[in-house]
Structure formats: structure tokens, C-alpha cells
Write a structure and sequence with these properties.
alpha+beta, globular, homodimer, DNA-binding, 6 helices, three-stranded antiparallel beta sheet
Chain lengths: 100, 100
DNA sequence: TATAAATATGAATTTGTATTCATATGTAAT
DNA sequence: ATTACATATGAATACAAATTCATATTTATA
């Protein structure tokens, strides 16, 4: 039963969370993400590939661009649970507040 | 907004998922987990500490034992989302099936 | 068909995280 | 107070995952 840890592992990374946050607003090409997040193109591409492998994002071709969009059906409720968790249980949560 | 990746990172580990799976059934002492999962005691303790820091588990003292229990309120719906995600989107999900 | 634009890929390196092992701390019983 | 039991901790190492950088692919346009 390791599917859970693989899924979590896929999101256990600040850049990927940034990407999620960006794609929450609207779908975007790689270059748009590169510019919005100010990160290396290959970094973004690698991250997107991993996320796509887990169906966290999907992609469509549009001219020479590839437009990535977020799987909101899975991800939005997931983030909501974490928001709720944090506000309810993590008043003292060092790990999540201080970055450890 | 890195709280998400810290939370995910906390669960991005097979042992911790095993612990969750065990605690889903019933609360357990460290030694019980050690025996049930067949892992080193310090390994279990380290894992539990990290999970406790994120309020994924909680602990109570009982004699010389410390009884850990799962934060079901957060974790169960979370796992449910992943189950649903997998059955819906991951027919071909290499990352989650082949362990990459 | 040669060039440019957009993105993807591979492999080496770096970085982060878990594991290990020895030991310390806490708790109760004798 | 000494011992045994249960768990926690720290630090070194091992391991896994992300970053980097150079280059390959893909798609469209001149």
C-alpha cells in the first residue's frame, strides 16, 4: 500500500506547491510558469512531468506551447483539508510554522 | 505558503504511511508498532516524532508506555481523496503503480 | 529545409531526509 | 536507590530526490 506515500511525495516540494498555487488561478504554459515563478525552465519542466505522472496536472498542446492545468477535483479538497487541519490542530505546530 | 509542502513531506515516506495504516485500526504503543511493523524502535520513534509535530498523531502516557493515536479527522478524508483520485485518474499512473 | 521558439530529457551534482546506532531520559517496580 | 522497561534523542552515515546544465525534441514559420 505505498500509493499514498508516492502521492504525498509528489507534492512534498515547495516548487510543486508553487506551481499548484499558480495553476489554481488559470492554466498556463511552461514559459508562463517560468516567468511567474522566476525559476529555471528545466526545473519547471521536471516538476510538471512528475506531477503529470500522478495526474496532478494535465497538459494539452496549443501551437508550440503546452498548456498545463491543475486537477482541481483532487487538489482543491486536499488543500482544504490541510487548511482546516492547520487552523484546528496546529496552533503550536512547529514543523509547519518554522519550516521543519 | 509552504505549509502544504511541509504537510505532504511529512507523509512522503513508506514507514509513516505504514504507521498510519496501523493506527487506523487502533491506538498503539511504540513497542506495539515496532512489533507489528517489524522495524527498529528508534526508527519508529523518529517517525512518530515528526508526525506528532504536524499533529498527524497524538500521544498519551499510560504507565511507562506512550500510546499513539491517529488524527483521523484529518487523515481519513485525505486518504479517501487519494483513493478516489487513483481510481479515477490513475489507470495509467506509472508513478504510483511502479513506484517512481 | 533551415531557423527559431517552446519544451523535454539525461546525467552529474547538490541538497534534503531517513536510517542507524549508541546512549540518554523517563517511568515504574523491587 | 537500584534495576528493568519503554521510549526518545543526537550525530554520523546512507539514501533518495531535486537542481543544474548541456543538449535533444517537437512544433511552427520564413
Amino acid at each position: 500500500m505505498n500509493k499514498y506515500y508516492l502521492f504525498f511525495g509528489n507534492l512534498a516540494n515547495p516548487l510543486r506547491v508553487e506551481i499548484i498555487s499558480a495553476l489554481k488561478e488559470k492554466e498556463m504554459s511552461v514559459l508562463e510558469l517560468v516567468e511567474k515563478l522566476g525559476e529555471e525552465q528545466s526545473k519547471i519542466s521536471h516538476a510538471l512531468k512528475a506531477m503529470k505522472n500522478c495526474s496532478i496536472v494535465s497538459v494539452k498542446q496549443e501551437g508550440k506551447k503546452r498548456i498545463y492545468s491543475l486537477n482541481k477535483e483532487t487538489i482543491l479538497p486536499m488543500l482544504k483539508i490541510i487548511d482546516k487541519h492547520e487552523s484546528k490542530f496546529c496552533e503550536e505546530c512547529r514543523a509547519m510554522k518554522e519550516g521543519r
